[in-house]
User: Fold these one by one.
Assistant:
Number 1:
Amino acid sequence: MKAHLTRRYILAASHRLHSDQLSEAENRATYGKCNNPHGHGHNYAVEVTVSGHVSPNTGMVCNLADLDECFRREIMERFDHRNLNSLAEFSRLVPTTENFAAVIYDILKREFRAAHLEKIRIEETVNNSFEYCGEARLS
Amino acid sequence: MIYLTRKCEFSASHYYHNPELTQEENHRVFGKCANLDGHGHNYTLEVTVKGNVDSTTGFVVDLKQLKDILNDEVVEAMDHRHLNKEVPEFAAQIPTTENLAIVIWDRLALKLQRAKLHRVRVYEMPDLFVDYYGEK
């Protein structure tokens, strides 16, 4: 039997949306308030969905404690209470929530091997959410 | 194809224990959930059915019928009960949220007539849920 398990985590970070490939005016036109030079922050709710066969021995897709530990070590330690723009992961990537979802997906795909990573979903605010399932992402 | 989701809540207790493991191994694998005195959750169940809209009624499914099935198969069977001790399916399997979603799917699939089950989602906590799509 195959099941999907989703765990939700909250992290707080700041960012500024600004592309070096655009002029100041174009940045302001594209990103609006999010281009404020001093940045701003969000409480991001990150939902991690993994899938796999339910083990007859444990009744579980994977051990939740392992997923929690991996998320703490790889995601919370890197991003919680940080300025995303200051981090190596975003040195050449605008820290939109689209890109944030893809960055988290790539890290967990590499680091969490106990189940298949299906999806990262991030709520940036209660009104905006973004999902990334590992497809090619550059247009 | 239209998808319709109905939600219901139930509260139940459970513990995780595999009789083939020692108590020490059970504690290592299941942590606090291995406490044999049990503990409880407020579960939220979301059942999604799919189907074409009936041209006479405009319904995918008769909601009254779906509500009755949920009441009989889930609420009556599991609300304010001990899953390990009072739900027969868990006599021989561990009542994890994964297995709970599968058991609920199997119970509902037997009773639903016109609409087809699409997904069973069980929230154990607001930050943890399992989806089951009937995949064997």
Number 2:
Amino acid sequence: MPSPLPDGPVSLLVSTRKGVWTLHADALRSAFELRGPSFLGHVIHHAVADPRDRRTLLVAARTGHLGPTVFRSTDGGASWKEASRPPAFRKARDGETGKVVDHVFWLEPGHASEPGVWYAGTSPEGLFRTADGGDVWQPVAGFNDHPRNAEWTPKEVNPTPDGPLLHSIQIDPRDPRHLYIAMSGGGGGVFESVDGGGDWRPLNAGCRADFLPDPFPEFGQDPHCVQLHPTAPDVLYQQNHCGIYRLVRPSETWVRIGENMPRDVGDIGFPIVLHPRDPETAWVFPMDGTDVWPRTSPGGKPAVYATRDGGRSWRRLDRGLPPSQAWFTVRRQAMTADACAPLGLYFGTTSGEVWGSIDEGVEWRCLARHLPLIHAVEAASLST
Amino acid sequence: MRVWIAQPLRSYVQQRSAVEAFGATLAQLLDDLERRHPGIRFRIIDEQDGIRPHVRIFVNHEAVRRLDVSLRETDEVHVLQSLSGG
């Protein structure tokens, strides 16, 4: 996910089931002002600022009735225009069952050398690209029409409630043609392209799929969130349905680093956030993955866990968070960091609260409450 | 012909409840509607030409699910929202 530049005030873009709110920090991040809503009533899965120009914002929207679309602003959110061609699969050929985008789930600004390029991941799983800042979107045929796409994205009879997802689009800062994506659904897993999306291959060795007869399949895992380190791009972290993993390229094998989490907490969760200046540091928000998978804070005691040594050890960070009877769920896009020093961390809950820490997770405070279900929180440093 | 527009779509038609559009079939009518009010068609019709699950289209008060329905100049079309939860 894009991180804000460290030289401007921090804003948080809070995407919810009923619209977008923003939280604007003062220069010291001591006070956050809640503004909004924008797009009231629209289901917003992701709102992202472009770190390349600090003025462009894209919002993935749909409503309960209407089809999916993308709204874009080139003035920091003062005004909005709808994409003239939102992400859409190509028309089915004779005899084919065509795919239909249900919602745009993930928005990712492109490589620094490609201003105007963004990628979008959708439900059901599709990859799309724009070269004009989000106005006209084209399918990435190399993935959507890949000879193995039907294996990787099988149509499900009973899909998960939010549908199968293509998410965690990650771009190697050294090479705009080197891409990673992740998928959760009937197929799933992490996939890599080294030719700008023309061809793809699974990259899941070492990663478990406990819900399949073969726990180590070529693909079919359920990565909840994958992050590539922006300054050490050979390092990737993954919060998976079956644990926390790290991959250091050129290795092709993920190593489970969540085994080092406390046993009574486990290493199941949705988001994972990296420190933009330290590839050994990451934060997760564990969820209860026992029994029937409550997917709440374990024991009703929410906490962030941090590693400072690449996953060899983890430290619980819960000061300021409710000590009991708080059954937070934090979705995969709903935890983020700014780029300040010390780093600010933020997460949004399905119960409509935004929590923040401006000391790398040591002390937490509630920045907003009573919002709708939060899908995503992204930090930005907008040009004023 | 007159096309009645559901409330969630009125941002595309300057907040009017009904607009004019023309076509010999529903598909042509929707193309004309898109030409006059860019962006509206994809919110109603998906990329495989299916009517979206929570949209209903009526021609002369009769629900239709296909776009190859023939239309006459005197027909009246309603593009409506169906119930979709909370």
Number 3:
Amino acid sequence: MTRFVLRRIGYYTFVAVVLAFFALPLLWLLTAPFTDTPTYRVEWPDFTFANFATIWEHPYALGSLLNSVILAGGTAVIVVALSALAAYALSRVRIPGRDALLYTLLLLSSIITGTAAMVPLFQLAVTAGLIDSQLGLVLIMTGGLLPAAIFMLKDFMDTTPKSYEESARVFGASPLRIVWDVVVPVVRPGLATIAVWSVANVWGNFLMPYLLLSDVEKQPAAVIMYTLYTEGGSPNLRLLSTFGLLYSVPVVLMYLFVSKKYGFRFHGGIKR
Amino acid sequence: MALETSRPDGTKTETPAAPVRSYSTDAAGLGTRRALGFVAPALVLIALFLVFPALWVIVLGLTNYSLTGAAAADPGFVGLDSFVRALGDGRFYNSTWLTFQFVLGSAVIGQAILGFTLAKVLQGRIKPFVEGLVILAWILPGAVVAFLWVALLDRDSGSLNALLGIPGFAWLIDHPMLSIIIFNTWRGTAFSMMLYGAALGNVPPSQLESARLAGASGWQQLRDVIFPHIRGHILTNLLLISLWTFNDFSPFLLTAGGPDGKSEVLAVFVYKVALSGGDLGYGAAVSTVILLINLVVAVFYLRLLRTRR
């Protein structure tokens, strides 16, 4: 009996410590934006919304969020389109060397990380005039995400039935028409997963835009956030807290959306 | 120049397919040629922006390319000089040692053990709540969570020092490695927690039950029943989180490698040498080493996946 009690006490102590450990850093993001004069310390908020005005007053804050949307959206569109085409072809047609290709893709995407490739990417961007080009950055990030996207989508398409395509073919539909009208609707959940995954990856990416975009007007929220707390002088906590919150909310909403709609299915190695 | 070398195989496959043979065996009647056309655009982007940089880093590492000075205008081939230089560079050794501590401390010990423990012991109504918080720490943007930790650990007015009653304790200055290790444990535990959560579902409850009836202690159940069933998951988990942590750039957001290089893990070292310091050739040589280590870990991981299937 005492052993049982001790175990319960141990369990609740552990849960309490874990809760505190994970909640403590996050609390500030909930309280500071709504506090009149926020400090580093977590305080009971005054429930004011006045701090959000600082975002409108700041020359780059809103623009950077828009830049994040452009970069994430652009990357997601290209990744979904190209990986869907490739994954479909690899799933349905026995292209010679297919398994070796998939294996190589998976290997490449896991070893060529931002850290390993930052020097050549920077040097190439300078040489090719892609510094400060949002399109260049989108293409670079697309190249990085495509292998894993193709791999995940191919797995997904392998499990969808081929019978719809076959019957459409019997009725004389052309292959491209079949892909667009029959395959796309069937694999839509897979496409949505890849889109959300790409957006989340680009939205949080700091290193690549930090390296490749030096024009403040083109930088996404990740870089502006970093600039806000590292530039000289005491940081403007009203701006930092509200901006940080605004920049975080879309990720949380996306997560809630995905886990509600599809259930949070676990993909090993989904995050780079 | 070299950008063009990777293009031929791309354009070759992109040329419009000749009249497709009337009967292709695949479901949609795509045929091999059109299928290659479907794969080509993705492969071109991967070749240009992923494979080529990885090969280019090896070439760069053999030059003395730099951002400024004489070597910027006229970079020369220096062979393995940069690698030899790394062997004698105390800063590189220091950085490698710190990276080892970072991976061992935050990934292997921190994330894996905490993640497993959470997956194993959490139960009841509190479970989804704790899991939600752990996942939140994982999905928030890196720049935001880094600042949250800067605020938490602030020497004079941070919440942690206030809570522990040790005002003036300078975490990021006096204990930078400990700070980034704890930070990365906090940041990345979610992945291990979810992976072990899925893995523990594979352990047959009947075996656990009979072990318990036979009087096995908690530790014995863990060692003799649970671990043998999830060995593959453990290895997968350790390899992946080690790879990610090894390549993680977020310590830069928290300490920027400082003070005095005391938290300068390899990712930050490369950035500082090559991009702040302008020594692209040397930075590329160190990147090549990172790439090779990644390759070893990834090949090991993929072989493991193959044998498990």
Number 4:
Amino acid sequence: MKLSLAIGTVAAVIAAAAPTDVAPSIAEASQTPAAAPAAGGNRLRVPVDYYKLPNGLKVVLSRDTTSPTACVAVYYNIGFRNEPKDRTGFAHLFEHMMFQGSANLGKMAFIRLVESNGGLLNGSTRFDFTNYFQVVPSHVLEPILWAEADRMRSLDIDIENLKNQQEVVKNEVKVNVLNQPYGGFPWIDLPMSANENWFNAHNFYGDLAHLDAATVDEVRAFFKTYYAPNNAVLVVTGDFSPDEVKGWVQKYFGNVPSAKLPGSPDLKEPRQEKEKRAGRTDPLANRPALGIAYHAPNRLTPEWYAFGLLDEALAQGSDSLLYDELVRKKGMTGSVAAGINFGLGNMFDYSGPMLWIAQFFHDSSVSSDALLAAIDGIVEKVRKDGLDQSALDRARVKMRSDLYASLEQFAGFGRANLLASFALFDDDPSKINQLEDGFEKVTPALIQKTAEEYLRPGNRTVYVVTPGKTAAQGDKEAR
Amino acid sequence: MKPIFVFALALLAGMQQAAQQKPPATGAPKDFVLPAAKRFTLANGLPVTMVPFGQVPKAAIRLVVAAGNLYENKDEVWLADLTGNLMREGTASETADAVARGFAAMGGELGINVGPDNTSISTEVLSERAADAVRKLADVAQRPRLPESEIERVKGNLLRNLAISKSSPQAIAQERFAQLLYGEHPYGRVFPTEAMVKGYTLNQVQTFYRAHYGAARARLYVAGVFDAASLESAIKQAFEGWTGGKATDAPPLPPSSGRQFALIDRADAPQSTVMLGLRVPTASHKDWVALEVTDALLGGAFGSRITTNIRELKGYTYSPYSQLDAHPAQASWVEAADVTTNVTGASLKEIFLEIDKLRKEAPPAAELRGIQNNLAGVFVVQNASRTGVIGRLAFVDLHKVGPDYLSTYVKRVMAVTPEEVRRIANEYLTPDKMSLVVVGDEKTVKSQVTQWAQ
């Protein structure tokens, strides 16, 4: 009966383009992939069949016969980082438009095709990709692949659809941010405060005026620029015949024309040398909240693997160092929530600069400075001494368990998500099978060195939400 | 389906002349077999269900105890939550941090989730530690330390959660909606007062624990990859000595009260949070599956009528949904949406129009078939995980719907006829009995909703 949990999951909702009402099922459902450890070893071996069509479409097949279901996921290499500067929120608005019709599927027809074939579907917009996925009984794969190819080839929208989805997206921003206590905290607030480069630091949910300003021509141009097979990966996981699926992929996607892609923007962030402080007054909130962010090491580097284990040890679960100190010993907060790519993904599914974020809700009897001092007590000790052996061992076990969990998430979608990310960003989905090794190789010395550099006070941004009326509100009432 | 589809085609006709291609046909469905469960009952009466499932080397363990909010007295709201949270604070033999580290070392975490009917104590660990996890979980359930030293801190966390919850418009609406449906019954009490929580004593927690935790009120479920023989013997050893807990004693439901209305002011809110609905028969009733189908067609599925109308045609909202919420004695049906403030009345009008329409006209067979296929497919997906399997089995046990409920579910979904959907809507989804809650900017919204305010 505790409804406050919703606060922690608000961020996930930016994702939901289409069926928000499948979310309860998503939360409950997950699946077991045929990804048992190899005989004689302790390592995951996810089957990976990777190839490219002549038009550049990357294809990953990963078979799993645990249940008669399949997941189809199409990831486009365009996230909200690199949307146009005067059109914040455009990448996400565009994601909604992909559900509005294509040459052979009118409005609602895509959604009905999936649902009436027993499937669930959704889409989401993240830092570095926009994805569309369906979880379906495996015998309906062919029409689903046909439909995904149809909208990759021939998005077909008009002003009515656009106006409709502008209203829907504005309502999405209202329900998740504007009419919500802590709306946008910390998943929009901290990237905007900690990053210097506009691509990483703008409001990716979008200014309402920018959303209103979008035109049909802009939607079509965005589609033409980024939604080409040579900028995408198609992943199919589940219980299917590989030869049959390869035939359908060739038949339906093979003749989608490729496009000349624009160059990638420079996403680099400068090394942060001095702590930054930011915050706001939230008239809807009644308890203060503290968010902290550190720039994380570059993805897939040895330090990044070490940072993943630091995250496990510091902030994941009720055995973690921060939970033990802040919740159990000092009673300053009731929970610790944190992660790399917090609220919008995991430590694997992005490609540019990324933050590690942690959030804490507390009472006004505890100041944010006192909370920060308690956090510093733990962080500085880890920077100096690293982790003790038992904490490091637990971090590795938790990482392995969490990795299995993310692979199993939502009937194969979790696995498709990792395969798509490694195909899209690294051209090598088999990296999924190298992750455990990467974490295993981390030494206690590397843990300490990584903590020393990346958990520097100068690398940190602090964001404080203070409950109360804003200046404008105070004026209004005084008058 | 028809009106929408025609609308879509009409739009397209103006834009393109080429004939549309039809999607390719589907293949033949593969057999779906529910995982076989092994059931046995310990000497003390604790029912155990073990389901070998999947290939990933993990096991999910869940102990379900009839110790939810249903068993709280009127002035004890969230005493069940306080008890559950205090059970995380160590056992007779281990401190809280040692318990937490123990579960973490097995790749899991201790979860204690207090719900309206049950409290679940659960974990999901790496397979080789399944028997150890059962022992640890049994220790938490049977020998919680319930330390006096931690109660004020744990109450402080509950008070903070309470305050934060009550700043969210959805939670405010849910609280009032539950009150309107269930009155003074525990299902009608979503939130305690601050004073209530502050006043709780360790003695009250201990009394609640002694009355409601015990083999007589619990069920144990395990699903995943495990060594059955060693796990079974670990379960017997760990749980056979557990006694205590009175027989279940749910308070009776008050009669339904008919239409009630509440408008709660949220000054200058950009959206109104609306909830409307009523009490309906629950899972053990013969009409339950048909109710589920009706709910999905009306507002539950993304392609449902209400969602298509107020989101995809009108753009009034982002996240409308309807759902059935089942307790053992009673269920409720609700349609909820956060709609732009100036179309609050217009949204309600459309929602009621869709309900009225379904009560008068049986849906087209093709539309119904799509919804039935959807429910059948989602059922398979939901049974495709360890926790999904446990959730289904626990549902069957909670509602006492019989061992063949799951194996006949898809068949019963597919057997529902269009006329039956109309009858169900007509019989159970009666608008003049529906309660309605609006949380929004009163000065703008009030005049829009007067027609429903009695």
